[in-house]
Each structure stands twice: as C-alpha cells, then as structure tokens.
Amino acid sequence: MSESPTSAAYDVALIGGGLAGLAAALLLARQGFRVVLLEKMTYPFHKVCGEYLAEESLPFLKRLGVPLEAWDLPRIQRACFSSPQGRELAFALKPGGLGLSRYRLDAELVQLARAAGAEVREGCMVQRVSGNPGAFEIATREGNLQARMVCGTWGKYANLDLQLQRRFMQTRYRSQAFVGVKYHVQADFPRDLVALHSFEGGYCGISAIEAGKFCLAYLAEGQKLKDCGGEIPELQNRVLARNPHLKALLGQITPLYAKPLVIAQVHFLPKSPVEGHILMAGDTAGMIAPLSGNGMSMALRAAALLAEWVPIYLQGRISAEQLEQQYALAWNRLFLRRIQTGQILQRFLRRPHSSDLLIRALRPFPRAVAYLHGRTHGSPF
Ligand SMILES: Cc1cc2nc3c(=O)[nH]c(=O)nc-3n(C[C@H](O)[C@H](O)[C@H](O)COP(=O)(O)OP(=O)(O)OC[C@H]3O[C@@H](n4cnc5c(N)ncnc54)[C@H](O)[C@@H]3O)c2cc1C
Question: How far apart are CA 132 and CA 30, in angstroms?
C-alpha cells in the first residue's frame, strides 16, 4: 500500500531486529508497507537482558499475536533490593510482570513479522546509511538496498553510532561505559520474585523465566572488569561476592551455558531519538537503567510510536522535517522522565554508601518506593 510513486525498493528499512525493530516491522507490514528488517545475527539467539517483562507491554504483545498465556510463564509480583552491605528492601510489584527469555520472544516475533509480510534478512550486518528521507541507501555486507525511510533499532551500541558521530561515542565518555553479563541458570530461588543486589560499581538481578530456568544478569562498570584483568569469574569473586546475598546466590547457581554472554560499551548518556534523518527506537534512542526492568517495554512502546508516525509521512501527509520534529517530541514525552528517574536511582545504587542510605531511607515508606517504581514505568498500551 505504498501511496507515493518512488523507485526505492522498500518503504521502510529497520536496522536491527530486537524488540523495537521486530515489533515495528510487524506493525508496518500489517499496514501494507514494503518493509525490510536487517539483523546481523541469526534467530534464535540469546541477548544480554534480565528478561523480566513488565506488565505494561503485555496487552501489546498479545495484540501482536505472541501467545503469552499458552506459554504459562512465571508471574513475578515481588521485588527485593539489597545494598552491597546486605541491607534489604522488599516490596510488592504492582502490577508486576512475566519472566520470558529473549531467545523465545524474539524468535516468536520474527515469525509473526514474516507472516505479516515483512522481509527479514538475517545475518545481515548494516555497514553504512547514506541519503535522505525519500531516498536512503543502505550498505550491508551482502550488498546495497534502497528505502524511503530508515529506522534505527540497532540497540545499545553499533558501528552506525560511530558513523553518525553520536555524542555518547566520544572517546572521553569511554570510561563511563558499563559491561553487561547474562546467564541462564538453575537455582533454588522463588519464582515470583525479582531480586536486585547491588555491588560496588553495579548491580545484579535474578528472576524466573520459562521452563523452570532463571535469568541472572548484571551490569558492572567497565573499569571494574579491567581491574580484574578482564576475567568474569574474578569480577564475580572479588566484586559481586562482597554483597553477602550475591555471595550466597553465586555459590548455589548452576549455569546452563558454558560461558556467560558479555557485552561492552553499555552507556546511559543522553541520546537523541532522531539523528541523520533516521528515527531511532528502543535502546538506540535512549537506554533506561536496567534496574527499572522496563527497557523491553520501552522498546515495544517506541515500535508502536514508529508505526503511528512513519505511515503519516509515507502517505505524504507530512514532510520529513515535520515527521522528525513530531516523532522526537512524542518520544521525549513518553520516555524522558522514566530515563532520568532510572538514571538517578542507578547512580545511588552503584555506590555502597549511597545505596545503603537509599535503602535505609526508603524502608519505612512503601508508598515512596511505589512512587519511584511508577516513575520508571508507563501505562499499559
Ligand atoms: C544487564 C541488563 C539487564 C536488563 N534487564 C532487563 C529486564 O529485566 N527487563 C527489561 O525490560 N529490560 C531489561 N534490559 C534492557 C533491555 O534488554 C533493552 O532495553 C532491550 O533489549 C532493547 O531492545 P532493542 O530492540 O532496542 O535492542 P536489542 O534487543 O538490543 O536489539 C538490537 C538488535 O540490533 C542488531 N544490530 C546491531 N547492530 C546492527 C547492524 N549494524 N546491522 C544489523 N543489525 C544490528 C543486534 O544484533 C540486535 O539484535 C536489560 C539490559 C541490560 C544491559
């Protein structure tokens, strides 16, 4: 249903097939546009993610066709935080969420996107984007393609951020980068609880996912890993295990794959939702601190936003300039406050003294905890 005459082969190209890219591809294809999604990996594959899916995005996923109910997933309704000294803060998660691996969720979404008519090219690494709205040229290792609109859904960090000279890529920010580590494990742990244990320079979460398994994921300052000679076991023994809860947890888990999944260059510096005429969504537009357990929902919500605005441009009802302005406004309205709140909380939790202080201050005030939790989340969509 492409309405304006153009020689571009596709109406929309989405670069990166995580939640933002897959959901947007699906929604745009359902509206009849010629959609191509380019993903450098091959599905199914694991991702560094805590895999706690906040309730707010469940109606949306069901509308996309993800059979969440049939999968009988663990329902997570309680949370607890601990400071590196071991002081705990427990609270009810209202409304909570589900535990679901990215391996399973992304693989389901790719099938749904294809069924809706989107072309998904796997193992297709995008190297460069040039051109302007109406006539973009996308260079991949497998050759070039053209599209009228390009959306950036490549996640936390990619070669394309360098090409666009995005601010957070400047070398002076490198020392502020984190590493993310993730395992699937077997553990003796409640299936309705998400625990977040902080340590000097980071925090580690554990919660249940499908098939009786648990996801254990943590974020640590890159410098801490360097101080441990780049060795993950060393980091866990020397830094994480100083928190007594983490020491006990790491001592009892059985990892289900030989080595953890590790990513570097995780940044929480401000990003912009539009750069180089590319509309960004998900982590590419801005990353919320993982402690909020809400990055997946934000990626999905941003996909819905793309699917709302991009068609208006493709149908010739607004100019590219208006699209960029309106999309950026809408994106900021939806996400900026959550990201800022998450950032402040993360700053407190990264340091032993301030995280202990925060937990002590919040313990007598469950309403304040609920308020802070609410500020990092959105309404169901
Ligand atoms: C340690 C940690 C724990 C977290 N825990 C949670 C949690 O429990 N709950 C939650 O909701 N969120 C959590 N998050 C955040 C969540 O994982 C992200 O917000 C979410 O994955 C963002 O989805 P996305 O679609 O933007 O990006 P991604 O899912 O990262 O997808 C980006 C895709 O782009 C592809 N790509 C990259 N470059 C290129 C290229 N050049 N060409 C082609 N393809 C490319 C990648 O292979 C990838 O598949 C956590 C994050 C971290 C780091």
Answer: 25
End-to-end alpha carbon distance in the chain = 26
- Pocket flag, ligand 1, residue 126 (CB < 6 Å): yes
Fold of the CATH domain 10-375 = FAD/NAD(P)-binding domain (3.50.50)
Which of 296, 306, 377 to mutate to test ligand 1, by most ligand atoms within 8 A of the CB atom?
Answer: 296
Q: What phi and psi, each to the nearest 5 degrees, are found at residue 210?
A: -70, 165
Q: How far apart are the C-alpha atoms of 152 and 12, rounded to whole Å?
A: 11
Both structure tokens of 63: 């509308």
pLDDT 10s digits, 254-276 = 999 989 999 999 999 999 999 99
Distance 112 CA to ligand 1 centre (A): 19
Centre of ligand 1 to C-alpha 86, Å, is: 30
Indicate if ligand 1 lies below 6 Å from the C-beta of 286.
no
DSSP E strand stretches across the chain: 10-15, 35-38, 52-54, 75-82, 88-99, 119-121, 126-132, 135-140, 143-152, 178-186, 193-199, 202-208, 214-221, 254-255, 261-266, 274-275, 278-280
- The amino acid sitting at 152 is G
In which element (H, E) is residue 352 found?
helix 352-362
**What pLDDT, in 10s, does the model give residues 26-68?**
999 999 999 999 999 999 999 999 999 999 999 999 999 999 9
Torsion of CA 64, 69, 71, 72, to 10 degrees: 150
pLDDT bucket at 253, cuts 50 / 70 / 90: very high
Sorted by where each begins, the domain ranges of the chain are 10-375
For ligand 1, is residue 283 a contact (CB within 6 Å)?
Answer: yes
